[in-house]
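User: Could you go from structure to sequence for me? I need the amino acid at each position, not a summary. Structure tokens:
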């Protein structure tokens, strides 16, 4: 198998070389695509140096060196990928030596279009550690709860399985057939500045046959530091709700356009609507909630039903 690893780069000067070296160690990795997104630190110079040192490393920028966000940068990498498979890596994270062990076996089955696994967490700064642990439960291993494949993965990502599957898996652990992405027109939604990875993963799980790989130990490490966007998130604030609303609105637009099964379309609609309602205020908010409950009583089953309404 041949793999193109796509790394979006924005202000990652302190971490980029480690990320690139972690991908370059694999014989299967034929190219490492750096999509530089108008960094304001020394990232571009480091990209150029790495491209000169490693024959695998290829550097690309947006037209006129513009800043377009992580989604557009990953799409830039997809556009230039030439290998049979595509994998992703954030510039402040790194792969472990077992990163593609499961893939080498599972992709012998042509039915399997994507494989994903577990990632670990490393605290790179004390401030980042404090911010992360103050907002999220300890996650030494981010993974799904049990092995799954095909439609079960999609159902799990929508929390429709009888037992807890996990709400998502990290993009760093995903390897996917390039032809499958092309055939199903799967790209990152560039209009989303956050959550574009989660949005793509759900759509990918619907269109492609995904399968769990190594889920009981890490195959990649996520670095937590002062500038992680994830550590800046404060749940249930208007800004947080707005971001979730945009994410689920994009999912709802996709579900309607694709005319996916009613069960799935309804689930996505309820998630979208719960965040839409959370952004309203005053008496109109409670009137809208009442009318939505009359129309869709199942909205009371979403885990957001009171958390957002009462804030």
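Assistant: Here is the amino acid at each position, in order:
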């Amino acid at each position: 198998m041949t793999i193109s690893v796509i790394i979006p780069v924005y202000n990652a000067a302190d971490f980029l070389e480690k990320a690139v070296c972690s991908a370059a160690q694999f014989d299967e990795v034929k190219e490492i695509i750096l999509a530089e997104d108008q960094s304001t630190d020394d990232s571009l110079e480091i990209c150029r140096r790495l491209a000169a040192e490693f024959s695998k490393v290829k550097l690309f920028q947006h037209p006129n060196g513009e800043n377009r966000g992580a989604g557009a940068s990953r799409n830039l990498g997809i556009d230039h990928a030439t290998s049979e498979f595509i994998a992703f890596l954030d510039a402040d994270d790194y792969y472990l030596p077992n990163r593609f062990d499961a893939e080498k076996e599972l992709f012998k089955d042509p039915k399997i279009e994507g494989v994903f696994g577990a990632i670990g967490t490393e605290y790179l700064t004390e401030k980042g550690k404090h911010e992360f642990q103050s907002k999220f439960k300890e996650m030494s291993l981010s993974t799904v709860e049990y092995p799954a494949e095909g439609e079960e993965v999609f159902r799990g990502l929508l929390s429709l399985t009888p037992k807890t599957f996990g709400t998502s898996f990290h993009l760093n652990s995903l390897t996917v057939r390039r032809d499958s992405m092309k055939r199903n027109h799967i790209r990152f939604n560039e209009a989303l500045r956050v959550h574009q990875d989660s949005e793509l993963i759900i759509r990918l799980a619907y269109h492609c046959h995904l399968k769990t790989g190594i889920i009981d130990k890490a195959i990649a490490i996520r670095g937590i530091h002062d500038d992680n966007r994830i550590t800046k998130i404060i749940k249930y604030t208007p800004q947080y709700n707005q971001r979730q609303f945009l994410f689920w609105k994009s999912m709802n637009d996709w579900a309607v356009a694709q005319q996916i099964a009613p069960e799935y379309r309804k689930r996505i609609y309820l998630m979208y609507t719960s965040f839409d309602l959370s952004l309203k205020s005053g008496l109109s908010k409670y009137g809208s909630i009442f009318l939505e409950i009359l129309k869709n009583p199942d909205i009371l089953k979403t885990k957001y039903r009171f958390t957002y309404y009462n804030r």
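One structural detail worth keeping in mind: The first strand starts at residue 3 and ends at 9.
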